[in-house]
Write a structure and sequence with these properties.
The chain is α+β, with helices and mostly antiparallel strands. The chain has helices at about 20-30, 35-50, 105-155, 180-185, 275-280; strands spanning about 155-160, 175-180, 195, 210-220, 225, 230-235, 235, 255, 260-265, 280, 285-295, 300. The protein has 2 domains: about 10-85, no CATH class; about 155-300, Umud Fragment, subunit A, CATH 2.10.109. Residues about 55-105 have low confidence and may be disordered.
């Protein structure tokens, strides 16, 4: 028995069969081959169909024909298929939002623009910051001066001791703090050190001294006199521990203190111009009570 020839397989069909060419292209695409890889086979098939079976000379492109692709666009060429989206081969449509050649440069220019703008803004902030600091410090200084002025006017004030009239309690050059509110809350007390405006009855020619500091000895309604070198108040001797031993007090005669006034004397009785000279002073002349020595530092303390 003669062996019969097997039926022709799919690969043994005539190359002139257009369905074979279409099937080969479809299978190449389904198997993941890029069109560029299937091109030699397809070119051979196309040449067979078109009768171009001759060899191509080296460097001469093969002629291409138009073949229908199963299920595809009949106007699509087999050797130059429509480029797929996202492919980098054969006329891929680039993203129009980005220029591959100039995109980086443009972005770099934008970044440089932002950097320059930031530098300009930072440069503009520096003078603003300096001006702001100057305004803040000016406000602090002005506020401090206002507070100091208010304190000096209504609360506390420092005074300088210019003479020896209060020795040994206060020396020349000492500085004391005066509480201006003391006598808004209580009466003047005996023994207080008071600073007062110089009375018009003071015969002293020293125009530079406008304020005086003395100690209160007699209160309104009391009679002040000197007996044997000691001070007597309403006939009773006055204890004066602030007067050094051996110092005597002399007066021209008894003095009765009027209402609203006080009798003052310096601790250095032998070198003090006080109420024994210009008489009792009005309480309205009193600036305040000296309560603290602040200079020299070695003798800081309450009076």
């Amino acid at each position: 028995m003669k062996a019969s020839n097997p039926p022709p397989g799919p690969d043994d069909r005539n190359i002139d069969d257009p369905s074979l060419v279409s099937e080969m292209l479809t299978r190449a695409i389904l198997e993941g081959e890029e069109p560029a890889e299937a091109t030699p086979v397809l070119e051979t098939a196309i040449d067979e169909v078109n009768g171009n079976t001759g060899d191509h000379s080296e460097g001469e492109p093969a002629s291409t024909g138009v073949l229908p692709v199963a299920g595809g666009d009949p106007f699509e060429t087999a050797t130059n298929p429509r480029p797929r989206a996202g492919s980098g081969e054969g006329g891929t449509v680039a993203d129009l939002s980005e220029d591959p050649e100039t995109g980086d440069d443009e972005q770099s220019d934008d970044e440089k623009g932002h950097d320059e703008q930031g530098d300009d803004e930072q440069g503009d902030d520096e003078p603003s910051s300096g001006l702001r600091n100057a305004i803040e410090w000016s406000a602090v200084i002005v506020g401090a001066l206002v507070v100091a002025l208010l304190i000096k006017t209504f609360l506390l004030q420092a005074f300088y001791i210019p003479s020896e009239s209060m020795e040994p309690t206060l020396e020349v050059g000492d500085r004391v703090l005066v509480n201006k509110l003391s006598y808004d809350f209580h009466d003047v007390n005996r023994g207080d050190l008071v600073v007062f405006h110089r009375p018009e009855t003071d015969p002293s020619d020293d125009e530079a001294i406008k304020d005086l500091i003395k100690r209160v000895v007699g209160l309104p309604g009391e009679t002040v006199e000197s007996v044997d070198g000691h001070v007597y108040i309403d006939g009773q001797p006055l204890e004066e521990p602030y007067v050094p031993d051996g110092v005597t007090t002399t007066m021209p005669g008894p003095v009765t203190v009027p209402e609203g006034q006080v009798f003052v004397m310096g601790d250095n009785r032998e070198n003090s111009s006080d109420s024994r000279v210009f008489g009792p002073i009005s309480q309205d002349l009193i600036i305040g009570r000296a309560f603290l020595r602040v200079w020299p530092l070695s003798q800081i303390g309450f009076l």
